[in-house]
Design goal:
Number of strands: 14
Largest sheet: 7 strands, mixed
Radius of gyration: 23 Å
Helix content: 25-40%
CATH class of the largest domain: Mainly Beta
Number of helices: 13
CATH topology of the largest domain: Jelly Rolls
Structural class: alpha+beta
Distance between the termini: 40 Å
CATH superfamily of the largest domain: Regulatory protein AraC
Length: 349
């Protein structure tokens, strides 16, 4: 059953809460050339912040759904990674045999884009979101009103596409379902309320550049969600994430990510973090789960695969950009790591 979306309250705040934007001063100054410099008050290097710069979105989709039970929404693997926020009411997340209850104020992120359904009741039928009649707002937003005459729920659903290295190690370590409860989302101010309010306002505005602004706002929502999850389980970060907490190995990971073209060796990385070669190699392997040079190659190939798919870069260009001595050496490393030669991957884009 489809009902009008243009009822009372549509112009109200998307999350129906008040929020404030807090300003903070910057510790940035400039030198005589005008180049920005961080003052001495800057805290020590935060490896997680540096690594998160590589995790970004290329696009996003936003759907504001006013629902009345019974209702059910279905999402396929083709929809990609997605997030859902229960602004009001509740429902159930179905993913394979799991049934996860969702209540007001909860946020769920499915970073791997697995097939799933949202429904009320738990075993109710579900219809693909794209097949339901909706009011489209521009190219990447929609308003949906659907259901019968039961309990009301208001959901914000978003689809996202990750850009950059496709095999980003952080994505590989995230759980298939990342659920945050309301008490984990609150702060001074509540970042979720603020982000959703801005996202909803932008979706309804139809202003030039709205798609780009919405993607950046979705960027914030996804990264904040991941950060909140990491903070919640800081002492139990698996593998690579736990290695970021080690000041020496965390710095080495940042160097590898920031300077992938460098001709790294175990000895040169050890010198950068002021450890002996043997101590560095042992600690890196133990914390990251693979030897240093294997990780270096893995990251380089992730970058190359991303460049070829997103920028249609040639193998020779990728080899030069990553500091390989020849295209042949790069192609051998690429095939050894990804089981296909770079030409096959590029022709498939």
């Amino acid at each position: 059953m489809l009902v009008s979306c243009r009822g009372p309250g549509l112009s109200d705040s998307i999350v129906e809460t008040r929020w404030r934007i807090y300003a903070c001063s910057s510790d940035i100054s400039t030198n005589s050339s005008g180049k920005s410099l961080l003052t001495k008050r800057r805290p020590a290097m935060d490896p997680l912040t540096d690594i998160l710069r590589d995790l970004r979105l290329s696009s996003s989709f936003y759907a504001r759904s006013e629902l009345r039970a019974p209702w059910g929404l279905s999402f396929s693997v083709n929809d990609g990674p997605s997030f859902h926020v229960i602004v009001r009411g509740g429902g159930f997340l179905r993913i394979n045999a799991e049934r996860i209850p969702l209540g007001t104020g909860e946020l769920v992120l499915l970073p791997h884009g697995e097939e799933h359904q949202l429904a009320d009741p738990a075993e109710g039928g579900a219809i693909p979101l794209a097949e339901l009649p909706s009011e489209r707002i521009g190219h990447n937003a929609a308003l949906l009103c659907y259901g019968a005459d039961g309990a009301e729920s208001l959901l914000i659903c978003g689809g996202v596409r990750f850009a950059g290295p496709i095999a980003h190690p952080l994505l590989e370590l995230l759980p298939r379902v990342l659920l945050l409860h309301r008490e984990e989302l609150e702060g001074p101010p509540s970042w979720l309320d603020a982000t959703l309010t801005l996202l909803g306002a932008e979706a309804l505005s139809l202003r030039p550049g709205s798609a780009a602004v919405m993607t950046r706002l979705a960027d914030i929502l996804v990264l904040q969600t991941i950060r909140a999850w990491l903070e919640r389980d800081e002492d139990r970060r698996p593998g690579w994430l736990g290695a970021l907490g080690d000041p020496d190995i965390g710095r080495a990971l940042v160097l590898i990510h920031r300077r992938a073209e460098e001709r790294w060796t175990v000895a040169s990385l050890a010198r950068e973090v002021q450890l002996s070669r043997s101590v560095f190699a042992e600690r890196f392997s133990r914390l990251v789960g693979m030897p240093p040079m294997q990780y270096v190659t893995r990251w380089r190939m992730s970058l190359a695969r991303s460049w070829m798919r997103e920028e249609r870069m040639s193998a020779s260009e990728a080899a030069y950009r990553l500091g390989y001595s020849s295209e042949a050496a790069f192609s051998r490393a690429f095939k050894r790591h990804l089981q296909v030669p770079p030409g096959v991957l590029r022709r498939g884009t």
